[in-house]
Amino acid sequence: MAKSFQDIMAEARKEIPEVSAQQVNELLKNNGKSPVLLDVRESDEWRQGHLEGALSLPRGFLEIKVETAVPNKDAPIIAYCAGGVRSLLAAKAMKEMGYQNVSSMAGGYAAWKNGGFKWVQDFQYTPEQLIRYSRHFLLPEVGEDGQAKLLQAKVLMIGAGVGVTTLATRLSKPRRTSCCPKNKPAPQISASMAWRRYCHSKISH
Length: 205
Hints:
The protein has helices at residues 5-15, 21-29, 43-47, 62-69, 85-96, 108-114, 127-132, 134-138, 143-152, 162-171, 191-204, and strands at 18-19, 36-39, 55-56, 77-80, 102-105. By secondary structure, the chain is an alpha/beta fold. The protein has 2 domains: 5-114, Oxidized Rhodanese, domain 1; 127-204, no CATH class. The chain has a 5-stranded parallel sheet. The longest helix is centred in the last third of the chain and has 14 residues, at 191-204. Residues 176-180 have low confidence and may be disordered.
């Protein structure tokens, strides 16, 4: 017999305990071992703000990546989303994968913010940067946090006049990317970005 959405949610609520935002806040204040906070919202939602210390793992990638992100299946885990629906389904999926201590935050991030509890917001990318660095975000070695650190990094180039000037000039020349039409020049890059490209080229070869 086919199940409706209401049937699926009812089953999930029978299997997965739900905790309030207040209870989550109290758990995080304990001096003991804190639970793993798993944010299953999409990346654009995450960028608008999230619980401090949370791990971003969008619902669509949960089954693919959760065993790498959270290898300990006995660890206490609290999943949350925007309103408590996706996190409940995510928690149910995790339980089916063998996770023994997973719960869902009722009301989600909206309830957390409305309760006046602490939340944080990471580096804010411009729309152009979201496109330009989209591939970097997918790299486990970089990700959005790593790319933000690179963008905020400062590089001091020291050399014997002509040598370092030539290097900086050559490396800072605009490079055409697949997103740039052939009849338009590629965007200029900063000196720090040029230096990072140079270092990366040396590492790669």
